[in-house]
Amino acid sequence: MKKLYLIIAMSLFPLAIDAQNPEWVNYMNGLKVNCISSEANLIWIGTIGGLVKIDKTTGEKTFYNKANSALPGNSVNSIS
Questions:
Q1: Coil/strand/helix, residue 16
Q2: How far apart are CA 80 and CA 21, in angstroms?
Q3: Alpha-carbon torsion 45, 47, 51, 52, what sign?
Q4: How many CB atoms lie within 10 A of CB 76?
Q5: Nearest to 65 by CA among 32, 22, 28
Q6: Exposed (0-12), middle (13-18) or buried (19+): which is 48, by Cβ within 10 Å?
Q7: Left (φ > 0), alpha (ψ -120 to 50) or beta: where does 29 sit?
Q8: Residue 51's closest CA among 62, 39, 38?
C-alpha cells in the first residue's frame, strides 16, 4: 500500500521529489551520526567513521579520520 502512495505522489508531484544534486556521498562509514555543529559558514558532523567539515558557501567537503589527521580515533562523539 505504501508503494502505491509513493507512485501516486511521484506522478502528481514529480518536480517536488527531484533532488537538486542527486549525487550522494557517504562519509559516515556506518549508520550513525553522533553529533553535528554549525559555526559561521561551516557544518561539522561527527560520525563513527570520522569528522566531516562542509563549507556552506562553497559546498566543499573535507573528511577527517585517524589515518589523515590528528584525531585519536575514528569515532567522533562530541564537537566543541
A1: helix
A2: 30
A3: negative
A4: 21
A5: 28
A6: middle
A7: left
A8: 62
Q: What is the DSSP string of 30-58?
A: SS-EEEEEEETTEEEEEETTEEEEEETTT
Q: What is the pTM of this model?
A: 0.63
Quick one: cell of 62? Answer: 573535507
- The C-alpha atoms of residue 7 and residue 3 are separated, in whole angstroms, by 6
26-71 pLDDT, tens digit per residue, is: 655 556 888 999 999 999 999 888 999 999 999 898 999 999 999 9
In the chain, % helix, strand, coil (3-state, to 5) comes to 20, 30, 50
Q: What does the angle CA 72 – CA 77 – CA 80 come to, to the nearest 5 degrees?
A: 90
Q: Could you tell me the three cell numbers for 44?
A: 561539522
Do the beta carbons of residue 52 and residue 30 sit within 8 Å? no
